[in-house]
Amino acid sequence: MSLLTVIGQLMSGMGMTCAIFFLTLLFSLPLGLVVALLRMHRNKVISVITRVYISIMRGTPLMLQVIVVYFAPYYVFRVQISQSYRFAAVIIAFVLNYAAYFAEIYRSGIQSVPQGQYEAAQVLGYSHSQTFLRIIVPQVWKRVLPAVTNEVVTLVKDTSLSFAIAEAEMFTIAKQISSKVASIWPLLAAGLFYYIFNLLVVLVCSRVEKHYSYYKI
């Protein structure tokens, strides 16, 4: 197997890894906020159901969740599984998992905002939705950015778990090539990609944190 062939195959896997990463963030970040609000809902039933969901997502392995999401349509509803569903199953599982983690991060941020902020907004005539969107959300976003960054870094590495249902992302292809050529270099190349990807993620998140920081040095 030539070097160009190896690089080409790894690049195709890199594209899948990037797709999983960006689509997971695109859907899990806003979904996490919705889950956080449901978690703090005054209705006990809604709050308890949301807590159970978060507990399951955080208390079971992501790999298991990917497998369950992929095979559940067949074993539960007897629906035939197509090859194209593999990617969708990975995205669904990742989004549901990371939304639970982001929900707890958002919840801690929302609860850290002083009650006086809500009272001041009420005095100024803001509605509940205006208070939340214009006053609370900007403050929460600044407070939770470091924790969100940690989860985003973890997501880069977790994309490799899609191999559980044979979705050919970067690490899966690297393992296949490594077995064919009997060499560890494809795996090291994949490891280097994850490291560089994480460096870029941290750099971008650091810039965002600095931009929104209260204290700029």
Helices and strands in order:
Elements: H1 3-39, H2 44-59, H3 62-77, H4 85-112, H5 115-123, H6 128-158, H7 170-181, H8 185-212
Helix pairs in contact: 1-2, 1-4, 1-7, 2-4, 3-4, 4-6, 5-6, 6-8, 7-8
Give a description of the structure.
The protein has 217 residues and is mostly helical. It has a single domain (3-110, 148-212), classed as MetI-like fold (Orthogonal Bundle). The chain is 82% helix and 0% strand. It has helices spanning 3-39, 44-59, 62-77, 85-112, 115-123, 128-158, 170-181, 185-212. It is flat and about 70 Å long.
Structural class: mainly alpha
Main sheet attributes: strand count, strand direction, barrel closure: none
How many β strands by DSSP? 0
What is the total domain count? Answer: 1
Q: Poorly predicted ranges (pLDDT <50, ≥5 residues)?
A: none
N-to-C SSE series?
Answer: HHHHHHHH
Distance between the termini: 52 Å
CATH class equals Mainly Alpha
The pLDDT mean sits at 87
Short précis:
The protein is mainly α. Helix content is about 80%, strand content about 0%. It has a single domain (about 5-110, about 150-210), classed as MetI-like (MetI-like fold), CATH 1.10.3720.10.
What are the defining features of this structure?
217 residues, mainly alpha, MetI-like fold, 8 helices, flat
